[in-house]
């Protein structure tokens, strides 16, 4: 995920950026920016010569995004597998439709649990300044 914004503060490697209001982030619908007071915290890992007022591009590393996707999609998947397998193992006389229903119930239950967990403890996003635009 890539964002553009203007540098507001610089404290060593830590940079505070005001995101570009014209750009719309469809990944989070700008909820990340709204929750942090309209600012994005980023790290200047490549030691770019930054100054307040510059427009820069920041992004979240791909591995971090991949980990977040796995943590969002794997629990519901395994919830369905657990519900389906459990029901088929302990109640073999019932049909596959009943086992699929049990799997679907656990799929939605685990998805709901992931949503509630993410609301209480959101994943830490570490933005990195990648380039200076202006």
Overall geometry comes to rod-shaped
The helicity comes to 40-55%
| SSE order, one letter for each helix or strand | EEHEEHHE
CA(first)-CA(last) distance: 20 Å
Largest sheet: 5 strands, mixed, barrel
Strand content: 15-25%
Q: Order of strands across the widest beta sheet?
A: 1-2-3-5-4
CATH topology of the largest domain: OB fold (Dihydrolipoamide Acetyltransferase, E2P)
Low-confidence stretches: none
Overall pLDDT, averaged? 83
Based on secondary structure, the structural category is alpha+beta
Give the C-level CATH assignment of the largest domain.
Mainly Beta
Number of strands: 5
Q: How many domains make up the 3D coordinates?
A: 2
Return the CATH architecture of the largest domain.
Beta Barrel
- Number of separate helices: 3
The radius of gyration over CA amounts to 21 Å
Give a structural overview.
With 134 residues, the chain is an alpha+beta fold. It has two domains: 2-61 and 125-132, OB fold (Dihydrolipoamide Acetyltransferase, E2P); 63-120, no CATH class. 44% of the residues lie in helices and 23% in strands. The chain has three helices and five strands. Strands 1-2-3-5-4 form a five-stranded mixed beta barrel. Strand 1 and strand 2 (14-19) form a beta hairpin. Helix 2 (62-90) packs antiparallel against helix 3. The longest helix has 29 residues, at 62-90. The two termini are 20 Å apart. The model has no long low-confidence stretch (mean pLDDT 83).
Please sum up the structure shown.
The chain is an alpha+beta fold and 134 residues long. Helix content is 44%, strand content 23%.
